[in-house]
Each structure stands twice: as C-alpha cells, then as structure tokens.
Amino acid sequence: MKFFVDTADTAEIEELAAAGLIDGVTTNPSLIHKSGKNFLEVTREICALTPGPVSAEVLALDHEEMMREAEHLRKIADNVCIKVPLTLEGLKTCKALSDEGTMVNVTLCFSANQALLAAKAGATFVSPFVGRHDDNGLDGMGLLRDIRLIYDNYAFDTQILVASVRHPIHVLESARIGADVATMPAKVIKSLVNHVLTDKGLEGFLADWAKTGQTIG
Ligand code: E4P
Question: Is 0.90 surpassed by the pTM of this model?
Fold first, then answer.
C-alpha cells in the first residue's frame, strides 16, 4: 500500500521523504489555509520535495472554471494531480482531464455509488473519507470494502486512496481490505512505528550493553 501525507507543511514532507516513508502528498483548501502560504507557491515547493503525485484541489464549482484552474495547477509540475469534488461538474472535469492524460483525484467520496461514478469518469484516484464517515456514525471501513469489491468486479483501474485517516487502526484495516493508497497526517504515519515491546526491548538491550563496558569503534 502506498502512503501519502495529508499536509501542506513542507517541513513535515521533507522529514518523511528523507526517511523514504511517503509516495505522494494530498492537500486541500483547509490545509493550504493552515500553511499560511500562497497556494501556487507552496504547491510548487511540495512537488519538488515529493517523489510521487501531489494532489492540488480546484475551488470552482462549474466545469469551465474548474478546467481553467486546473490549467494553472498542472503547469506547476509533472507530478501535480488535480483534485476535483465528487459532483457532476467535478466528474465532467475528471473525464476531460483524464482524457488529456492528467492525473485526477476525485475527493469527498462518501458512498460506493459515488466511487463507481468516479471510476467511470476515469479518475486516477478516488478519495473515500473514512474518518468523517465514522464521525457521523457510519461505517468507514464498510465503505472501503464495498468500493474494493465493486472495482474488482469490473477491473476498474481507479486507485482507492483512503482519506480522512485518523489513527493506526484505519491504516491496518485499509491495508487488509486492499486499498491502494492511504493519505494521513504526518503524526499518524509516525505513530505506526510505536510499540511498547520495541521500547522495552531496546531499554533492556541498552542496559545489558552498558554492563559490558564496551563501545563500538
Ligand atoms: C484528503 O485528501 C483530505 O485532505 C483529508 O484526508 C481530509 O481529512 P480530515 O477529515 O481529517 O479533514
């Protein structure tokens, strides 16, 4: 499963990329706002730091304006992936951009039928928001299972990009279901390393090593 980091914070991206832990980045208007930077400039910086796709979201609601915005965004770098909302206008834009060979991430997906539409429109990625699904008393992982089943039934190429990931169990369950990508905050990626037995084991080894009185080199 590929890991994308869900942030517009370049320091976070740089740190994770140096550790080889990320395959791409997703941003959204709220994350751009949080970064305090200019959208086009910070997207350019992120693209330079990132090995894979960088999702940048259009703000317009109608197809013509979405295409105009996408034109600006895709000029930034070859790894820009245009993010469009899961609306009819967004799907129309997805189809037009995909036909031209541009990567598209269809975002704000909350149902398997919506995911089916995104695949039919040629999306590179569809983003089901599992955390927001759970927040509203719905079954985020059930949604993922349905999308995986439907995409496999018809051999759709669209990749399932699990979004709104809140904790390590979301990552584990997404991997079990066979999601293609998970995008998550840097703190969730880092938390995957934690295990109390690793900490305890390390503590024991270091204590015994100190008793040997030796050093390496
Ligand atoms: C995905 O592309 C979105 O940016 C993101 O995962 C939304 O997550 P949130 O529900 O934590 O805001």
Answer: yes
